[in-house]
Amino acid sequence: PCRLFHGCNRLLTSQIISYYDSINQCKKELPEYFNFASDVLDEWSKLEKDRRRPANPAFWWVNDEGEEVKWSFEELGFLSRKAANILSEACGLQRGDRVIAVLPRVPEWWLLNIACIRTGIVFIPGTSQLTAKDILYRLQASKAKCIITNDTLAPAVESVMPDCQFLKSKLIVAKGSRDGWLNLKELF
User: Fold this and answer.
1) How far apart (Å, rounded) are the C-alpha atoms in residues 162 and 63?
2) The AMP-dependent synthetase/ligase domain covers which part of the protein (predicted)?
3) pTM of the model
């Protein structure tokens, strides 16, 4: 029997195991290159769109104040493609480039993570408790070309900018704009 989660059918563990067993038994072909965003999220989106799979939330986030963000697989795919375009076009990043995200766990964190997976950009997460010295070390050691942060940590990034020769773009997740920064919400 299938257990219900908020009225939606869940994929059974036995179904997941049988899928991987079929790969191990060479009944399914392994892709030469695997990309979680296109090979999993986009496929689940197609299954939901074709009504071959019940609609389940792909992403569900709730903050301390009770604000809620819920995206279907189709919405998550669309938004992550948009975020991937922002990283590629506005930030000028390419496959293999590194981006550091120093954000609290807000929906944009996951969205940018999937966008990086989609484009082959290396996503380096950082806790929002990092100091300017910590951020400088990570930027220098990783040779990141882009940093993504919020209003709270932007001053720390700005204080170490003169020592970050590889950093080409700064993306801020904020309601308002900030001089010298690209604003994710505005670019969307």
Assistant:
1) 35
2) 51-176
3) 0.79
Alpha carbon separation from 154 to 13, 21, 139, 147, 179 (Å, rounded): 43, 48, 14, 10, 11
Give Rg (Cα) of the chain: 19
User: Rounded distance, CA 40 to CA 38, Å?
Assistant: 6
Architecture of domain 32-186: 3-Layer(aba) Sandwich (3.40)
Residue 53 has which token pair?
């799979």
Distance CA 78, CA 115 (A): 10
Of the listed ranges 54-63, 118-127, 151-160, 161-170, the least confidently predicted one is 54-63
Task: State the distance between the two ends of the chain, measured CA to CA, in whole angstroms.
Answer: 42
Q: How far apart are CA 15 and CA 54, in angstroms?
A: 15
Contact call for residues 10 and 2 (beta carbons, < 8 A):
yes
Distance set, CA 30 to CA 4, 33, 38, 138 (Å): 31, 9, 14, 35
Per-residue pLDDT band for 5 (boundaries 50, 70, 90) equals very low
Per DSSP, the chain holds a count of helices (H) and strands (E) of 8, 9
Pairing of strands 8-9, 59-62: unpaired
